[in-house]
TrEMBL record:
Signal peptide: 1-21
Origin: domain of life: Bacteria
Family to which the UniProt record says this protein belongs: Belongs to the bacterial solute-binding protein 2 family.
Protein known as: Sugar ABC transporter substrate-binding protein
A GO CC term assigned to this protein in UniProt: outer membrane-bounded periplasmic space
Organism: Clostridium aciditolerans
Amino acid sequence: MKKILALTLTALMCISLSACGGGQTSTQTSTDSAPKAGDTASYAKALKGKRVAVVRNLAAGDHTQQFLDGCVSEGKALGFTVDTFVTDGDDAKTQEVTAQCIQKGYDGLIVSHAQLSYAYNMLKPAIDKGMKVVTFDSMPLKDGDAKGQLLDGVTSTAQDDSALASLSLGFMMEEFETNGGKYPMKVLKTFMGPGIPPLDRRNVVYTKLEKEGKIKTVEVIAPSDTANVRGDMTNKTAAILPKYPKGSVDAIWGCYDELAKGVLQALNDAKRTDIPMYTIDISNDDIQLMLKNKEVWKSTAAVDPKLIGIVDTRLLAKKFLNLETPQYYNLNANLVKTSQLSSNISMTNLKTVINGWGDSNAKEGALNEPWMDEVKKVNGK
């Protein structure tokens, strides 16, 4: 059964990557006007003083701070001036702040977690103005169509969401089998969407397992207050828990850690340790909660958030030099089991217990090209 499950999840990962255009090379850039290879002084001079704005449409939590740290540290090392803006999941504010950044004349823009419905129209003025744009978990597709054309000139980056879901759900089902469970698993599902590209991609894997009869969703828990996701999830979970006595639910799937933390609080308040939870994304806060709640929070699947910021900034540097960049770029995912963690583990040393943490599975090695290291030396970084 485990071998069949592994094959099923692997196939789903391949399908999802094909659907989002992973690895497709953009044709909007050229190396014709780029500095000569190895001419470090030319690269450094071309990048020095570039002004970059980073707009993050999530709450100012630990995960957000690490992403921003990645953007700022890599940007400064390459000679940029980097300003960051956090819009707390407020879509109207995100569009307003982005418009202001475009008007203020920044050279480059990194946008995280803009909604599919407005991302294209929000970012088109930046491209029209000649700004270089990289997005994370934001797909500026024409007409807000998930199968539409990506805004020309943009690189859209993402975590490998299919792999994240496959790793998370795969371990959930593996433990279920090990404990003698019989399919379908009865699952409380957390979700936001549709219309949020990363969560929609994760949901493709989940719904496929539903159709195969491996999972039965007993209830979907979704927040309605995006300004207070965790608190809203706590209240909603607390309201439904009495409907599900011990033994009636096999697992909780957290498609996003902020949702899961709200669920965990409700479980703790109700003194319920009978339902294991499997999630996606990680932060220092998550690590501490996983260790404190080992009976419940069994694992998470994640990508190093600081690396995401670093990669987005490297892509922007390549665009400034008119070097070729892909239309889409996915970052490698890892499974983190609570049993692998200890009190001395944090995001800074997670790589000591998780093989491959912080590395990219792409052949270019998280886009860290030799000239970047040379430019950093010129800048004294």
